[in-house]
Amino acid sequence: MQSTIRLNLTAMMMASVAIFATTATALSQEKPLIAFAQEGLYNSWRTANNDSILAEAEKAGYKIQWVQAEGDQSKQVAQVQDLLKLKPKVLIVEPAEQQAATPIAALADAAGVPLIVADRGLGVPPGKGQYKILIEVDWKAVGVELGKSAVEALKLRKGSPAGNIVELVGTVGSTPQIGMDEGFKSVISAHPDIKIIATQDGHNERGPGLTIMENFLTAHPAGQIDLVWAQNDEMAIGALKAIQAAGRDELLGGILSKDGQLEAVKEVAAGNFAADCTNTPYFGPIIMPYVADLLAGKEIPAHPPKPFICINSLTDAAKKEAQDLLAQMQDQKMAFAPK
Q1: Can you tell me the distance from the alpha carbon of 320 to that of 270, in angstroms, rounded to the nearest whole number?
Q2: Please, which pLDDT band fits residue 25 given cuts at 50, 70 and 90?
Q3: Helices and strands, number each (H, E), in the chain
Q4: Per-chain mean pLDDT for the chain
Q5: What is the rounded CA–CA span in Å between residue 149 and residue 254?
Q6: Residue 116: in which H helix or E strand, if any?
Q7: What is the per-residue burial (b if ≥16 Cβ within 10 Å, else e) of 252-272?
Q8: Cys-Cys link to 168, which of 36, 213, 225, 235 (CB 3.0-4.6 A)?
Q9: What domains sit in the chain, N to C, each tagged with a CATH number?
Q10: Which residues sit opposite 66 in a β-bridge?
């Protein structure tokens, strides 16, 4: 009888050890949870951006919980609070507005969760506390390049750096808008005969871009507008549609934009856009190596550069470069330039 009891106890102990080992293995193999707060999905750039991050997170073996705030910054801050309750290993945020998004850094600090911010910044610098990294292009440099293109375009169109510009901005208060405005104006301010005569926020959307441009065309008859500066391709394409519908052909070739969207690259290659600077939405392959480094306890740079290129139609050689980029994108079935 005692022998039977000893055998049963031994079997029970071995079973307990096996269950414990199995549970420990399962826990060690559990996918790390990554939280992602997207500011909105209101245009094709943002959708491609979102898809890239989700796809690369899955490829890397992470479990990802994500939300989007429909462009509402206060809503996104509340969503981040909810995401942090899930105790993710890393928080990724793409904010809408710089200052209004700033509390997110303090929320990450309080939760002890490393924070990656992408595309647009917060009102505090990265590299302090849990705000580990900001990944974005140099928006001021983009504005400078587009400002240079504006000056050259006006020289070609008017014979001198002089003329009137209408501007479609997006989104007011965001780091791209602030940086690009600063860079653009730093260039044109050296030419007092270049003036921005109207500015309106098109929220980076094609429909508002079209409507705003229609209003600009009504308010400023032919001869009163020389260039159109749209701070993203969706607004620029909307503006082009309004120009074509109104028969204002004098403005064809006088549109400046940024993003490197396929439709915009086509318009540069065709000569309808003067210039376009790229801002690839494919952040997934950029962000995920930094996530892996944070999970491994490694140090990462606070503000690494994100490359961009600018194309234009101001010379035959430049137009040929735009046509070559277009051919590459079409061949590889890319909706946006690769960098």
Answers
A1: 10
A2: very low
A3: 11, 11
A4: 92
A5: 10
A6: strand 115-118
A7: bbbbbbbbbbbbbbbbbbeeb
A8: 235
A9: 30-137+282-295 (3.40.50.2300), 139-278+309-331 (3.40.50.2300)
A10: 36
